[in-house]
Amino acid sequence: GSTLYLSGGAMPMFPMAVARDCMSLRPMRRCGALSVGVLLDADGAITAVEPCRSWVKVSYGLTYEDADDLIELAPPEDPDLAELAELLKRRTAWREQQGALLMEQAEGRLFRNGAAELALEITEPGLARSCVSEAMILAGAAMAEWSSQHELAMPFRVQAGSSQDNAEANQWPQGPVRWAQQRRGLSRSRLQSKAEPHGSLGLPMYLQWTSPIRRYGDLLAHRQWLQFSGHLEGEPLDAEAIGALLQRLDQGQREASLIARQDQRMALLEWLAGPIPQWPQPATLLSWLREDNGIALVRLEAWAMELPAQIEAGLGLGDQLFIQLERVDPASDLLRLKGIAG
Questions:
Q1: Closest CA to 155 of 233, 247, 226
Q2: What pLDDT is attached to residue 205?
Q3: Residues 210, 136: contact at Cβ < 8 Å?
Q4: Which of 10, 23, 181, 205 could form an S-S bond across to 169 if both were Cys, CB 3.0 to 4.6 Å?
Q5: What is the 3-state secondary structure (H, E, C) of the chain?
Q6: Residues in the chain with pLDDT values less than 70
Q7: pTM for this one?
């Protein structure tokens, strides 16, 4: 029920020829789409939502770096992106006031290049990426509120708030250590036909809406709206029918996530067993996994990765240390890292 993103490349939910052609926004061509108009108040709360069918013509594309420049420079002849960024920044602040956990940091992933060799790719956070992420969350929140108001059953994604007191996490400044502590108390999100809060996003309700080409749940949400609005033949599923479907869909998405994690794990072991990584690597102690055994989660900033390691006595949360590879065996799925004081 979703596209798989593996180290060797993507395995699309739809045939690539279809996904890249009639289902995508193609340059310089008028393409059908579903758009969501949203009105925000001065604080960033949603006051009105208007979903509609639309035509979109992409006249030119921007890289994230190009978009960052347009946002920062805000040229008078092209102010739209900077104005949109300000609106989305307001929305982010509103969600944070509602308890959203904002964890923007670099993320490292391994992929196979044209020579089938593993290479590390680090995605850095930036203004444009933040805008895209916030706009996607806003679209999902807006459609969740619209659907709830119109009593339309949808694949709502819900998540309970943290089960732990955030006092320990809040003693740390914004950054990897604080975020690691906040994640410890989070429950897994799940799909259901009834709208309920999504704690870590700081939203009273939420559904995923923006990726119908790569997530079946998003495609289902589009179909529900199209049938409800009379743009597609048939009746939308009721809460009972969609609930039964979501149980299978949720399980499928968890399996897909597990496959992707296992793929990255095996790619990591293969990469660490090769000649490229340099040791020791500087790291930060983020959280204890098994404190009685000295096992902790550490962040290797140069690789933008978080990995478990055996830590020597006397080190605590937030301490800087060096990580040394003790043993790696891809065939046995074995990785042992040792952390020593810096």
A1: 247
A2: 99
A3: yes
A4: 181
A5: CECEEECCEEECCCCHHHHCCCCCCCECCEEEEEEEEEEECCCCCEEEEEEEEEEEEECCCCCHHHHHHHHHHCCCCCCHHHHHHHHHHHHHHHHHHCCCCCCCCCEEEEEECCCCCEEEEEECCCHHHHHHHHHHHHHHHHHHHHHHHCCCCCCEEEECCCCCCCHHHHCCCCCHHHHHHHHHCCCCCEEECCCCCECCCCECCCECCCCCCCEHHHHHHHHHHHHHCCCCCCCCCCHHHHHHHHHHHHHHHHHHHHHHHHHHHHHHHHHHCCCCCCCCEEEEEEEEEEHHHCEEEEEECCCCEEEEEEECCCCCCCCEEEEEEEEEEHHHCEEEEEEEEC
A6: 163-166
A7: 0.94
**CATH (residue range 281-341):** 2.40.50.140
155-to-53, 99, 191, 226 alpha-carbon distances in Å: 20, 23, 6, 14
Q: What is the pLDDT of residue 165?
A: 61
- Amino acid 282: pLDDT: 97
Domain boundaries, the chain: 4-272, 281-341
Q: Which two tokens stand for residue 192?
A: 């259901």
